[in-house]
Write a structure and sequence with these properties.
This protein has 297 residues and is an alpha/beta fold. The chain contains twelve helices and nine strands. The strands form two sheets. A six-stranded parallel β-sheet has the order 3-2-1-4-5-6. A three-stranded mixed β-sheet has the order 7-8-9. The protein is globular, with a radius of gyration of 20 Å. It starts with a strand and ends in an 8-residue tail after the last helix. The structure holds nicotinamide-adenine-dinucleotide. Nicotinamide-adenine-dinucleotide binds next to helix 3, strand 7, helix 5 and helix 10.
Length: 297
């Protein structure tokens, strides 16, 4: 199938590569052409703007940093909607605001284009392995027609309901992941200071009721190695927590702890760690406690 793909960064690049490996013909665009070098070597075509990636593409994917980037790439002067014709389908793989994605879907529908939100979870390693969770909101018939495409990038593709519901699921998930990260940093620095080795602590918690993917998968690849190369940038993690607290305000849901987690991410940004991996937030607790959470073996 002919596909367009806009945004070939840390997540978009490996997802696009998996679609090429699955036999699809991609036309790709990114603000930074060098972000697509490997994809062009694999046979993808280059488009000079988002709009140019659309004609001839049955489906167009976007994987972009923040809601305003998605808005610009869909509705902007050289955006994908400008180049679209009736019957085309857009999947937004970004972690986006449900309110924004619902508005964009209305703009698309007015032009006969179907937009589905399909954010992903599982990190850059899950994107490379094709084992992402994909949570989809939008027209169910269109979802079913193109589910096999999503199966090329993830192993847990879930239909979540109406447009925006994929984003709601993703935001709730990431709030849990970021909140868990903050609390884990406190629990682990406490345990180490009180005399237990980090490896033992992590093993016990992972096999007990406090276990989480954050501790089992993410910390061992990043924080425990002192590796803060993203991965998943702190700026994007901060964006996701803020999307959750904003959604809480929009729907009148009290979220005291979530707003503390939000402020922890604001502090990490203030310290200049926005481009570091999101595990960098734990460095705040490391500093305050005088305990470094590193495993070397
Ligand atoms: P990234 O910054 O590595 O990649 C985004 C890419 O979009 C960049 O290459 C950038 O140049 C490009 N871009 C930005 N604005 C553009 C525009 N107007 N036109 C064309 N290209 C543009 O970010 P990422 O880590 O790949 O994340 C992408 C999305 O996926 C985000 O919404 C993020 O929250 C979400 N996400 C990330 C991870 C992760 O582990 N990194 C995991 C799940 C979800």
């Amino acid at each position: 199938m002919k596909l367009g793909f806009i945004g070939t960064g840390n997540m978009g690049n490996p997802m696009a590569a998996n679609l090429i490996k699955a036999g699809h013909q991609l036309t790709v665009h990114d603000l930074r052409r060098e972000a697509a070098t490997n994809l062009l070597e694999m046979g993808a075509d280059w488009a000079d703007s988002p709009r140019e990636a659309v004609p001839g593409s049955e489906v167009v994917f976007t994987s972009l940093p923040v809601p305003r980037d998605v808005e610009a790439v869909v509705l902007g002067e050289n955006g994908i909607l400008g180049g679209a014709s009736s019957g085309q389908v857009f999947f937004d793989l970004s972690t986006n605001s449900p309110t924004m994605v619902r508005r964009l879907s209305e703009e698309c529908a007015a032009r006969g284009v179907t937009l589905l939100d399909s954010p992903v979870s599982g990190g850059t390693y899950g994107a490379a392995e094709g084992t992402l969770a994909v949570m989809v909101g939008g027209d169910k018939t269109v979802f079913e027609k193109y589910k096999s495409l999503l199966d090329g990038i993830g192993t847990h593709v879930v239909y979540c309901g109406a447009i925006g519901n994929g984003s709601v699921c993703k935001i709730c998930n990431n709030l849990m992941s970021m909140g868990t990260g903050v609390l884990l940093a406190e629990a682990l620095t406490l345990g180490v200071k009180a005399g237990v080795g980090l490896g033992t602590l992590a093993d016990v918690i992972n096999n007990s009721t406090g276990g989480s993917k954050r501790l089992a998968d993410k910390f061992p690849r990043f924080l425990f190695q002192g590796n803060f190369e993203p991965g998943f940038a702190t700026a994007l993690a901060a964006k996701d927590v803020r999307l959750a607290t904003d959604l809480g305000r929009e729907y009148g849901i009290p979220m005291e702890l979530s707003n503390l987690v939000d402020q922890k991410h604001v502090e990490a940004l203030f310290r200049g760690w926005g481009l570091e991996d999101s595990d960098a937030v734990a460095k705040i607790q490391e500093e305050k406690s005088g305990v470094q959470l590193r495993l070397h073996d």
